[in-house]
Design a protein that fits this description.
- The structure holds two protein chains of two kinds.
- By secondary structure, chain A is of the alpha+beta class.
- Chain A is 34% helix and 20% strand.
- In chain A, helix 1 (19-52) packs antiparallel against helix 2 (69-98) and helix 4 (224-234) packs across helix 6 (304-316).
- Chain B has one domain (34-544): Cytochrome c oxidase-like, subunit I domain (Cytochrome C Oxidase, Chain A, Up-down Bundle).
- In chain B, helix 2 runs antiparallel to helix 16, helix 6 (165-192) packs antiparallel against helix 7 (205-237) and helix 12 runs parallel beside helix 15.
- Chains A and B meet through helix 1, helix 2, strand 7 and strand 9 of A and helix 3, helix 5, helix 9, helix 10 and helix 11 of B.
């Protein structure tokens, strides 16, 4: 059975897969138990009064006590002390979450409608998949190409909006080998709920190997058409291009290879290897008529072998 | 206070028997041109109930769509419009005007023994502005919908969305003026038109809550108006204010927006608290415990509400120091809210509690507001908010406050004052069934969402992970029970209008002034101007002896 992308650690919370998670959960449970005690006390009093002072008849004796200064001062001061305490509980974890350790691995993160792009220190790029080493602090330097997005990994308990026109950062240190998920949590339009990425936590040697060869543990190089099929999903081609002939944002891939397409400027083009290559690298140069020119460029995001693989795959989609 | 010898059992003095504000004049035109605060209140009441129905239909559609993890009944574009319109209709067409403009308009002058509000014509203008704004919002729905969320975050709303953002935001802009003018009218009325003997500390606490609300409406709403106008300028004329590609700052929009919209949360909840106070006192036949504490806590909430907007923005990219300061200040909202809670319980203590329909809503309010308030502590705690922000936990929290507290108080107030407004009683049994289904359905729907939220389910998601499907489906089933509860309540009230027994002047044996005149009241409110000799909620000596 496939495990859920977010594994549960308790009834309420996901598994704790980062160093900050435990701190945040501790704060959560402090508030939780304070709330439970308060709620039970308040509702206990309510239930008791509802029973004790239920109307028996018109002759019910009514209390004429209209206030009690002692009570009122105590139920102002005690909650004040409690909530100031909570503030510091929250502040402690917050400070830890806001300041990344100096030795953090920096990964440049770009959000756009509707995908995540991660650029690693050695220039490697991954799309909709964040691969990080276990046991090393990772700092993401994030920006958005269009609207607001937000980076959220439930198992890491970290969240930070990604804002166009500025950099925001978030850091975490993964403590478990995980294959979990990151969400966009700031509403960004029609594809908002599909703007997820996989988060893969690997041991350091395996992470290094992936950086080197693009191969994850247990993976062998794929035949081109199969690699292309994988890229179709992992690089979000499927968000806009269907395989079954239905129209999404872009033209369907069903029978695309060899088809003659009408271009927006009135000319026509036969879909061959060069047109596919050009459409990946300069997608808005020859847009098929009737479709919006919204495809982002994959220049720098796909290796030569990846482009070959996609071409090989598209030949098989009939 | 009232001289019972000269009035009949409906509260009518002999010379005006049968005449009241409803039948004084007849015809649609007499309603559209009325300056009677009671008729204006009734027209607001009908309008906000229509808004509630509209928002409710979108709510049920949203929940139905979320029954399954992928497409259930609509596509992503329609879903985004549905949740936007649900939020916008509920906030701007229902909750903000709900209690102040309908029950407040009707009862504020009555409760201080006045003939009308200070500026009756301005009051009618408020209603017309509300309708005009509502028409722009409805026009937005018809001409392409809105898909930005009710918060209109930029740059999506200013530059990317292709829907009718301008029409919707302009509608909200116009409705803002309605809100400002109503607030202004209430402030002046409370200052200038109190009956002889009606000192500030003799006013029913509902009026203190309306006073605090009005202050916020007058001070905060202009900021929303300016913000939305800037958004419209940016969208229509590409003047760079919020959009970074034009040189603007998207975080600035959030500051502007929440500078209004956080105080607006208290525009929504304070009147509900006031209604709950009236209900709890009347139906337990008990003077309110800690009158001044409740009165001043309303004002304190109004003031603190202006200093906490940044708690909506802990992860927005605002500075860490700002977030820490806003978190600290936010916790101080908990204190006056707690004071109110304790005083409400103190009011029940030593009373004679009747479990009438309004009282059931009053008790439900205490239960739901306790959950809504206490879960706010999670979100104010900085580190915990990192995990919970923009998840279903937030959705559940604010529904407990907005719907569980404000809407429940509104429906409690509606049942409490229904006999006074319409002159008709309703079927208690049917009203109880409506209440019970609403209460059960509400908790069923929204408590589930706390669990979804802590487990990591983000807000505003059309598709979601399969692992969340059972809880989502469970929540959707609850929404059907909730919807049925409201449907039964509406049927019950509609039937009361047709076949309800005539209401006596003071069916709940209440002490406040609005019950000392006929049900329904005459156009001038009182036969002769009342003179107040007792404290708020105080009973004449012979009754308590």
């Amino acid at each position: 059975m496939r495990l859920d992308p977010i594994e549960l650690g308790s009834f309420w919370m996901p598994k704790q897969s980062s160093t900050i998670a435990e701190e945040i959960d501790t704060a959560y449970y402090i508030v939780y138990w304070l709330d439970v005690v308060m709620f039970v006390a308040l509702m206990g009093a309510l239930a008791y009064f509802m029973y004790k002072y239920k109307r028996r008849g018109p002759k019910d004796k009514l209390s004429d006590v209209t206030h009690s200064t002692t009570l009122e001062i105590s139920w102002t001061i005690i909650p004040t002390i409690l909530v100031i305490g909570l503030f510091f509980v929250g502040l402690k974890g917050w400070m830890k979450a806001m300041v990344a350790p100096g030795n953090a691995l920096e990964i440049r993160t770009t959000a756009e409608m509707y995908m995540w792009t991660f650029t690693y220190p050695n220039g490697n790029v991954s799309v909709n998949e964040l691969v990080v080493p276990k046991g090393q602090p990772v700092k993401l330097i994030m920006s958005s190409k269009d609207v607001l997005h937000s980076f959220f990994v439930p198992e890491f308990r970290v969240k930070q909006d990604v804002v166009p026109g500025m950099y925001t950062t978030v850091w975490f240190e993964a403590t478990e080998n995980r294959d979990t998920i990151l969400f966009c949590t700031e509403y960004c339009g029609v594809g908002h709920s599909d703007m997820m990425a996989k988060v893969l936590v690997l041991d350091k040697p395996e992470y290094d190997q992936w950086q080197e060869t693009g191969l994850k543990p247990g993976e062998k190089p794929l035949p081109p058409a199969e690699l292309g099929k994988k890229l179709y999903a992992t690089r979000s081609c499927n968000t806009c291009h269907s395989l079954d002939g239905s129209r999404i944002q872009g033209p369907t891939f069903k029978g695309v290879f060899g088809r003659t397409e009408q271009i927006a400027d009135g000319s026509s083009v036969k879909v061959d290897e060069n047109y596919i290559r050009e459409s990946l690298l300069e997608p808005n140069k020859k847009v098929v008529q009737g479709y919006p020119a919204v495809m982002p460029t994959y220049k720098g995001l796909l290796k030569e072998t990846d482009i070959d693989a996609i071409i090989a795959y598209l030949k098989t989609v009939q | 206070m009232a001289n019972t010898a000269t009035v009949d059992e409906l509260g009518h003095a002999p010379e005006v028997r049968g005449k009241n504000y409803l039948n004084q004049t007849a015809g649609v035109w007499s309603w559209l041109t009325t300056v009677d605060h009671k008729r204006i209140g009734i027209m607001y009441l009908v309008s906000v109930l229509v808004g509630f129905g509209l928002g409710g239909i979108f709510a049920l559609l949203v929940r139905l769509e979320l029954l399954t993890a992928k497409k259930t009944i609509m596509d992503a574009t329609q879903y985004n419009q549905a949740f936007t319109l649900h939020g916008a209709a509920m906030v701007f067409l229902f909750i903000i005007p709900s209690i102040p403009a309908s029950l407040g308009n009707f009862f504020l002058p009555l409760m201080i023994g006045a003939k009308d509000v200070a500026f009756p014509k301005l009051n009618l203008l408020s209603l017309y502005l509300f309708w005009i704004g509502a028409i722009f919002m409805l026009a937005a729905i018809v001409t392409g919908g809105v898909d930005t969320g009710w918060t209109f975050y930029v740059p999506y709303a200013s530059g990317v969305s292709t829907t009718s953002v301008i029409s919707a935001t302009f509608g909200v802009f116009v409705m803002g003026f309605s809100s400002i003018l109503t607030g202004l009218n209430f402030i002046v009325t409370l200052h200038k038109l109190r009956a002889p003997g009606m000192s500030w500390y003799r006013m029913p606490l509902f009026l203190w809550s309306l006073y605090a609300t009005s202050i916020i409406q007058v001070l905060a709403t202009p900021v929303l108006g300016i913000t939305l106008l800037l958004l419209i300028f940016e969208r229509a004329f590409h003047i760079g204010i919020f959009d970074p590609t034009l040189g603007g700052d998207p975080v600035l929009f959030q500051h502007f927006f929440w500078f209004y919209s956080h105080p607006a949360v208290y525009i929504m909840i304070l009147p509900g608290m006031g209604v709950a106070t009236e209900i709890l006192s009347t139906h337990s036949k008990r003077r309110v415990f800690g009158y001044k504490a409740i009165a001043f806590s309303s004002v304190a909430i109004a003031l603190v509400s202006f200093l906490v907007w940044g708690h909506h923005m802990f992860v927005s990219g605002q500075s860490e120091l700002s977030s820490a300061i806003f978190s600290f200040l936010t916790f101080f909202v908990a204190i006056p809210s707690g004071v109110k809670m304790f005083n409400w319980l103190g009011t029940l203590w030593g009373g004679s509690i009747r479990f009438t329909v309004p009282m059931l809503y009053g008790i439900a309010f205490l239960f739901l507001f306790a959950i809504g308030g206490l879960t706010g502590l999670f979100l104010g705690t900085l580190s915990v908010d990192l995990h919970l922000h923009d998840t279903y936990f937030v959705v559940a929290h604010f529904h407990y406050v907005m719907m569980g507290s404000t809407a429940i108080a509104f429906f409690g107030g509606l049942h409490h004052w229904w006999p006074k407004m319409t002159g008709k009683m309703y079927d208690e049994k049917l009203a109880r069934v409506g209440f019970a289904l609403t209460f059960i359905g509400f908790n069923w729907t929204f408590f589930t969402q706390f669990i979804l939220g802590t487990r990591g389910m983000p807000r505003r998601y059309y598709n979601y992970l399969d692992q969340f499907q059972p809880l989502h489906a469970f929540s959707t089933y609850g929404s059907w029970v909730l919807g049925t509860g409201f449907l039964i309540t509406f049927i019950c009230l509609a039937r009361s209008l047709k076949t309800g027994a005539p209401a006596p002047a003071n069916p709940w044996d209440s002490t406040t002034l609005e019950w000392q005149t006929a049900s329904p009241p005459i156009t001038e409110n009182f036969e002769k101007a009342p003179i107040v000799t007792l404290d708020a909620y105080e009973r004449p000596a012979e009754e308590t002896a």
